[in-house]
Amino acid sequence: MEKPILKISSIWNMSLGFLGIQFGFALQNVNGSRILQTFGADAEHLSYFWLAAPITGLIVQPLVGHFSDKTWNRLGRRRPYFLGGAILSSAALILLPNSSGLVAFLPPLLVGAGLLMLMDASFNISMEPFRALVADMLPDKQRTHGFAIQTCLIGIGAVLGSSLPYILAEMFSISKTAESGLVPDNVLFSFYVGAFIFMGTIIWTVYSTKEYPPHIYREFDSKTEPATSRGIIQIFIDLAHIPKTMKQIGVVQFFSWCALFLMWVYMTPVIAQHVYGLPADDRSSAIYNEAANWVGIMFGTYNAISALVALFIPFIAKKIGKKGTHSLSLFIGGIGILSLFFIKNPNLLLASMFCVGFAWASILSMPYSLLAGAIPHHKMGIFMGIFNFFIVVPQIVIGLMGGWILSLVHNQVIYLLILSGVCFLIASCSVFFIQEKKEI
User: Which of the chain's ends, N or C, has fewer CB atoms near its CB within 10 Å?
Assistant: First the structure.
């Protein structure tokens, strides 16, 4: 039985919560390294702090996917996880920038890793079911549109989250400096706003979206759950039988997320050192904070471009195919990152981020569109969760190796962004090994 075509307004409503989720992620991505360096972390150790987030995702995503496949209550199948994750995420957003007092009692590594783990676990509880919801609710012909709309909202949320500290400082004269070891007020208030928007958008999705009841949903599924499967053991059974298409897309994801992780972790110290000419041990001067605020504008730029590009992705995919669209976008992103090596003018950095926006738009939509037709309906949540392995494993690899690589290049962090660009190019080439599969 074919799923009915949904109105575009319904797709926007079911995806709106992603705006809030990405607002929170943007605050974390732009300001995480900055906050950790405020607490005293060295650039060489930053990747170790960021290990907490992917490790958490490695555990949380499959569990949430598995249990959301099995959940049916008054709120529905996926919506209970949206709401629960939103409550925890909002609390984490308020806690992180106010945690400087804990550094007096605990090592910075423990504080930073613990809070990033709490925040990322909360984000993942809300985020993973959103991918499954689009696959649940939309027929195959609308899925590219569905994931593209999600990407557009992700871009909008990320623009707002990335730019807000800069806007508060430059337009509203909220302090962008603070005493050593404390987070500036513009960052602090940005996290408060993020908590409010995260909660509000999730509530809107929960209120406005009605999932199919179990008896209707089962009519869309041509397969039934194996009678021998029991509980969490099913996660390991499914892990051993992931579709071939998922493995092929996973290679592309691996290199794509290596590139993204390097960019997110090291962009602030790169801009501070390579463009603003600051020494590696400068983590609190006015110029350092200016550089960090400009990174927010850079990240906001690539997210703004991704939101626009996402609207055209379905049409581009019709012309050159899903694989061609994804490969071209990753190639453009790789060229953008590599160009950072040659730029010393902060304003010109935005041109590089323009290119990254193409890659980000595609990464957030095309892999899921390619994957959705290759997995059975009743396994959508768990396989989307397992697919997250190909996102978190590369981050763990880079997190473990980042400090070692940085020592090899004598703490010249710009070379880690060159590695990021190379990873994008490898991912672009890997796309053509994917064998697309129609919906099963």
Answer: N
Structure-token pair, residue 161: 């989250």
Distance CA 124, CA 82 (A): 9
The closest of 260, 23, 6 to 153, measured between CA atoms, is 23
pLDDT tens column, 105-119: 777 557 766 777 788
Token pair 């575009």 is at which residue?
A: 8
| pTM, entire model | 0.71
CA distance 413 to 270: 6
CA 403 to chain centroid, in Å, comes to 22
Residues 18-30: b if buried by 16+ CB within 10 A, e if exposed: bbbbbbbbbbbbb
Residue 181 near residue 103, CB atoms below 8 Å: yes
User: Exposed (0-12), middle (13-18) or buried (19+): which is 281, by Cβ within 10 Å?
Assistant: exposed
Main-chain dihedrals φ then ψ at residue 188, nearest 5 degrees:
-60, -50
The per-residue pLDDT for range 366-413, each reduced to its tens digit, is 998 888 767 766 676 677 777 878 888 898 888 888 888 888 888 889
Q: Which amino acid is at 400?
A: L
What pLDDT digit, counting tens, does each position of 278-331 carry? 887 777 788 888 888 899 889 889 988 988 998 898 889 889 999 999 999 999
Cα–Cα distance, 276 to 389 (Å, whole number): 36
The CA distance from 322 to 87, in Å, is: 36
Q: What is the rounded radius of gyration, in angstroms, for the C-alpha atoms of the chain?
A: 21
Q: Which residue has the tokens 């490898």?
A: 426
For residue 187, pLDDT over 70 is answered with: yes
Dihedral pair phi/psi, residue 98, rounded to 5°: -100, 15
